[in-house]
Design a protein that fits this description.
two-stranded antiparallel ribbon; 53% helix; mainly alpha; 10 helices
């Protein structure tokens, strides 16, 4: 997809989707995201959607992909129609990466151009000094602190959205908790899959493919 993002349109779509759930705490959540700079933040420092507004766009992409996965899976596993709600997919997908809101800072980096020469390139660096709470767990805490009402499956889908990449393989407790969350709540796997599809397919660009 194109790296150019219409921040205003993206923000409006994000707010409309989140408000469509009618969930308690949405207004406070949106106010905090606005104040904290969520809608201006990139989705990464040097990979997918590393541009202003990229984080909100990625969240929308993950939501749309997760909804598509849910719709498709209902045709082969009808129980998902009642076991997983559309509202939960929207909430967990849109809020899964709010932990990234305060970790990126603008910087100038050295990057090789098409000729293999090093040149200055404006981008972002990462810092965890503001609230070093981790990744998925930080998103859950920030949402709750904003007054957002979350169900158990939504909290777990946000917490474990990185899948195995977010599991400390040296921790027996982490591995068991992740495995239990996936088995108990299909929402966990759906949000994880939507997030992965968004980054790997919807947000890939020609430059990254050329560098392979």
């Amino acid at each position: 997809m194109s790296e150019k993002i219409d921040a205003k349109v993206c923000k409006e779509e994000f707010e409309t989707l989140l408000r469509s759930t009618g969930r308690e705490g949405v207004d406070g959540m949106l106010e905090d995201l606005e104040r904290q700079g969520f809608f201006e933040a990139p989705a990464s420092a040097g990979h997918h959607l590393n541009v202003e507004g990229g984080l909100a766009q990625h969240s929308l992409n993950a939501c749309k992909a997760a909804l598509a996965v849910w719709e498709g899976m209902k045709t082969v596993e009808p129980s998902l129609a009642t076991e997983v709600s559309r509202d939960s997919i929207i909430i967990a997908s849109l809020l899964h990466d709010i932990c990234k809101t305060d970790i990126y800072r603008r910087s100038v980096k050295k990057k090789k151009n098409a000729l293999g020469q090093w040149e200055d390139s404006e981008g972002y660096k990462v810092t965890y000094r503001n609230f070093p709470m981790g990744h998925g767990e930080k998103s859950v805490i920030l949402a709750l602190c904003s007054g957002m009402e979350l169900s158990d499956d939504e909290m777990l889908a946000i917490r474990w959205h990185m899948g195995a990449w977010g599991v400390n393989q040296n921790s027996f407790e982490d591995c068991r908790n992740y495995d239990a969350a996936r088995k108990l709540y299909p929402l966990v796997a759906i949000v994880q899959t939507g997030d992965s599809l968004a980054a790997a397919i919807m947000e890939r660009n020609g430059g990254e493919i050329d560098e392979l």
